[in-house]
């Protein structure tokens, strides 16, 4: 069987979601709160419905309420699944109306073909899957941290396996037979642990009747003793009540003595308060006198009131600054004289260099330019080579004359060879000679033309050079004249002397400018110094003049003036501080006096505003103490009279000693114990008398009750014998049935343990292949290191989870027993697995997925990556988004 498709229209947080599963391994991935658990409960609810009702005592919400839709009104959806036979079915369920419809592959409604339950509707899942909801939950439905099989689930699985193994069908139910016999035994007889069944009720009634009979006989014997006992108890009760009155009087005396002590304690406290009040009244008077003296000092130095306590330090600082400023003024004046003397000397020396004032500002640059230009012109003049050009002209003229001569000779030879051609027989020879001589003539003519052109060019260049020479001579003369004029004005002979003298002039001018700048800066500093001195004097004269230490028109400030100001302000501030302190003390004294009056008011419940009120209350306390002593004397006499004993009675003296004991707690405890003991005795007597009176009053009825009890006892004994016979028969049948069930369980246990060992060995990589489950599905394994059989708590948490998972899978395979191969639904089963366990278990699931569908829920990337590596392209991943 496999689940093909889920259509979740409204279920918990999921709304309108369609999920399609493949035949093999399906990995449903989603973060926490993505809805993985909701999908699992949807599958379970679609197959077996959801349980409703009220919340449990622990506050757990039933699934039907828990998964009601967050959005929309429709609560339900559909599921499509296919059986191993190939038959496909679609189930639609509405959880709001508790309605379900089952359709076959042709969409025929086949809902009525299944057995129905009032709560769950058609039981199609039980018929198609072959297991009920309890077996489904404890085999193929493996929830988060829920691989272990509990006791109730184990019992359910054992019964199902036993039915299938013995009969081939779970329709014939050993469980039902066992439950029917047990129900009959309980309903018609009862068991050792039952309390409300027929046999229990008969035994209970017999015991009750026997007890009543014994009580009646005892009562009958006691009736005669009860009357005499009542008389004695009545006399004893009267004596105890008189003594209780005496103890109550003693308690009043102790209470009065406590009141006396409380009043005395209040009196002592009041006396202390009065003494404290007198002390602070005297202190207030002393503080008032000191305040008047301080006010006199304050008035004497009232002129200092506008100044703060840091003004003496400030005026000291101002005086020190004034002295420093006067010293600075003297230094600046001396510096001014020195600068003026140096400026005069430089101005006198500049008279020697007054010629430089007429020059332009860049005259030294002009001189340097002229010198450079003269040197360049002289070098240029030297570089012009007219002689070489003349020699070139001569050589070209000589060459032209030679060519002219050659042309004449060749012309004559050409003419002669032409004439000889006409007169001699060697015409060819002379024709060739004529041609050669004519060609040479043409060559010489061409050469002559080239030489003539070169001669003309040389003549032209010579004329240009001669013109340039003339220009250079004129420019050189002009520049030499200008530089001689500058040297003459400056009174120097050459350029070096000019530059030296010009540098000395510029240095003196620069120094003069620096001195004038220093003089300006010095005058600014002197002005600032003068203003600073005036400002300090103004500040100091304001304070000293205001306090009458110096006249406002007086200009000189002395250290004595500053000292007088400092001392006067210190006295004024001291007077202010003393006044503040004295006022605070007066206020504190007044507050403390008021607190004394408030405390007295709180303690004594009266209003006190002055010392006279306290004295009046003290007199009232004396009167109250006398009244309390009079009452104590009165109650003491009543106690003595109540006893009626002489003064030598030990009981009386012990009581009076306790009454007048200084420890009130001890005396009260003693009296309370006596009263408690006495009241207990009186109560016991009253209770005992009431019982005896009831016994005496019902004595005439006892005989009739005894006879009635005898008749009822005989009837119940006969009923008991009948029920015991029925119970013996039912127990015999139940024992036979249990023995048969045990034999059946022992038959399927080897198959289950074989599957368990095979699966456990695979996922633990052969380490734990010898694993067994007992009748209660408690797992034990053969520990490979020690070869000991150990229980699971002694193994690691990851190994325990693996073995429990192996048991769940083995149970599923055993429960199926040739029926439908059910899909495994697994939720976060790798929580305690390390990476090695995850891979080994996934490899086992890979082999298992070849035969059955697996739906694996996880929120961890580790499982996603491992499954991708193990299953490859066969992995079907379904991702749930965050809802």
UniProtKB/TrEMBL annotation:
The keyword Transmembrane helix applies. Residues 5-277 form the Rad50/SbcC-type AAA domain. GO terms for biological process: double-strand break repair. The chain crosses the membrane at residues 402-424, 430-448. This is Uncharacterized protein YhaN. SUPFAM superfamilies: P-loop containing nucleoside triphosphate hydrolases. Residues 199-290, 315-387, 455-539, 569-638 form a coiled coil. It holds the Pfam family AAA_23. GO terms for molecular function: ATP hydrolysis activity. It comes from Acetivibrio thermocellus AD2. Keywords: Coiled coil, Membrane, Transmembrane, Transmembrane helix. InterPro entries: P-loop_NTPase (IPR027417), Rad50/SbcC_AAA (IPR038729). The keyword Transmembrane applies.
């Amino acid at each position: 069987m496999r689940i093909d498709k889920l259509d979740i229209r409204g279920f918990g947080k999921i709304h309108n979601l369609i999920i399609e599963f493949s035949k093999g391994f399906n990995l449903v991935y989603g973060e926490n709160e993505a809805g993985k658990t909701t999908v699992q409960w949807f599958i379970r609810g679609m197959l077996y419905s959801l349980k409703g009702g009220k919340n449990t005592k622990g506050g757990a919400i039933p699934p039907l309420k828990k998964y009601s839709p967050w959005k929309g009104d429709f609560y339900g959806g559909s599921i499509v699944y296919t059986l191993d036979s190939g038959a496909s079915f679609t189930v639609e369920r509405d959880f709001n109306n508790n309605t379900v419809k089952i359709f076959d592959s042709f969409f025929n409604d086949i809902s009525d073909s299944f057995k129905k339950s009032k709560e769950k509707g058609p039981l199609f899942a039980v018929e198609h899957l072959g297991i009920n909801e309890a077996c489904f939950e404890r085999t193929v439905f493996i929830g988060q941290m829920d691989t272990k099989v509990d006791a109730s689930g184990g019992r359910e699985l054992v019964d199902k396996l036993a039915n299938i193994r013995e009969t081939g069908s779970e329709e014939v139910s050993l469980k039902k037979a066992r439950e029917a016999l047990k129900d009959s035994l309980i309903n018609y007889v009862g068991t050792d642990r039952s309390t409300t069944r027929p046999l229990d009720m008969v035994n209970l009634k017999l015991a009750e009747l026997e007890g009543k009979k014994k009580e009646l006989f005892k009562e009958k014997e006691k009736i005669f003793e009860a009357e005499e006992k009542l008389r004695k108890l009545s006399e004893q009760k009267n004596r105890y009540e008189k003594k209780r009155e005496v103890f109550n009087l003693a308690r009043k005396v102790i209470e009065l003595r406590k009141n006396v002590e409380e009043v005395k304690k209040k009196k002592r406290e009041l006396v202390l308060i009065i003494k404290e009040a007198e002390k602070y009244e005297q202190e207030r008077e002393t503080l008032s006198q000191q305040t008047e003296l301080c006010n006199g000092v304050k008035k004497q130095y009232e002129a200092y009131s506008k100044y703060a306590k840091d003004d003496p330090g400030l005026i000291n600082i101002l005086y020190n600054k004034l002295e420093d400023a006067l010293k600075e003024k003297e230094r600046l004046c001396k510096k001014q004289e020195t600068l003026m003397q140096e400026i005069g000397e430089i101005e006198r020396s500049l008279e020697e260099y007054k010629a430089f004032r007429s020059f332009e500002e860049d005259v030294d640059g002009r001189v340097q330019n002229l010198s450079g230009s003269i040197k360049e012109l002289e070098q240029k003049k030297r570089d012009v080579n007219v002689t070489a050009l003349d020699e070139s002209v001569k050589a070209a003229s000589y060459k032209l004359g030679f060519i002219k001569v050659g042309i004449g000779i060749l012309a004559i030879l050409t003419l002669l060879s032409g004439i000889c051609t006409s007169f001699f027989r060697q015409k060819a020879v002379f024709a060739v000679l004529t041609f050669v001589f004519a060609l040479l003539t043409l060559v010489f003519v061409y050469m002559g033309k080239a030489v003539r052109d070169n001669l003309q060019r040389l003549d032209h260049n010579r004329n240009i050079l001669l013109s340039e020479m003339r220009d250079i001579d004129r420019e050189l003369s002009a520049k030499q004249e200008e530089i001689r004029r500058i040297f003459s004005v400056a009174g120097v002979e050459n350029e070096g002397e000019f530059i030296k003298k010009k540098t000395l002039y510029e240095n003196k001018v620069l120094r003069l400018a620096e001195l004038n700048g220093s003089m300006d800066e010095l005058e600014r500093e002197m002005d600032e110094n003068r203003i600073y001195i005036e400002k300090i004097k103004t500040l100091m004269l304001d304070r000293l003049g205001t306090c009458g230490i110096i006249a406002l028109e007086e200009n000189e400030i002395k250290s004595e003036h500053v000292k007088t100001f400092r001392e006067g302000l210190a006295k004024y501030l001291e007077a202010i501080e003393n006044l503040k302190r004295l006022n605070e003390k007066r206020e504190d004294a007044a507050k403390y006096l008021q607190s004394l009056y408030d405390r007295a008011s709180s303690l004594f419940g009266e209003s006190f505003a002055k010392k006279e009120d306290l004295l009046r209350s003290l007199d009232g306390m004396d009167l109250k103490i006398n009244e309390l002593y009079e009452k104590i004397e009165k109650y003491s006499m009543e106690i003595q009279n109540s006893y009626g004993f002489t003064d030598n009675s030990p009981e009386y003296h012990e009581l009076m000693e306790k009454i007048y004991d200084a420890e009130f707690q001890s005396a009260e405890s003693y009296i309370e114990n006596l009263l408690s003991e006495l009241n207990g005795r009186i109560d016991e007597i009253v209770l005992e008398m009431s019982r005896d009176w009831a016994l005496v009053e019902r004595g005439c009825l006892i005989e009739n009750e005894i006879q009635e009890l005898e008749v009822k006892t005989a009837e119940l004994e006969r009923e008991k014998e009948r029920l015991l016979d029925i119970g013996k028969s039912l127990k015999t049948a139940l024992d036979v049935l249990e023995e048969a069930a045990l034999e059946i369980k022992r038959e399927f246990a080897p198959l289950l343990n074989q599957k368990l060992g095979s699966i456990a060995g695979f996922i633990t990589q052969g380490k734990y292949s010898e694993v067994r489950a007992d009748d209660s599905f408690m797992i034990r394994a053969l520990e490979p290191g020690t070869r000991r059989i150990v229980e699971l708590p002694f193994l690691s948490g990851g190994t325990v989870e693996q073995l429990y998972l192996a048991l769940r899978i083995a149970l599923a395979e055993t429960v199926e027993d040739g029926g439908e191969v059910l899909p495994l639904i697994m939720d976060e089963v790798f929580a305690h697995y390390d990476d090695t366990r995850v891979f080994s278990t996934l490899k086992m699931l890979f082999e298992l997925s070849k035969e059955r569908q697996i739906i694996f829920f996880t929120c961890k990337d580790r499982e996603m990556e491992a499954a991708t590596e193990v299953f490859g392209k066969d992995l079907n991943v379904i991702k749930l988004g965050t809802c």
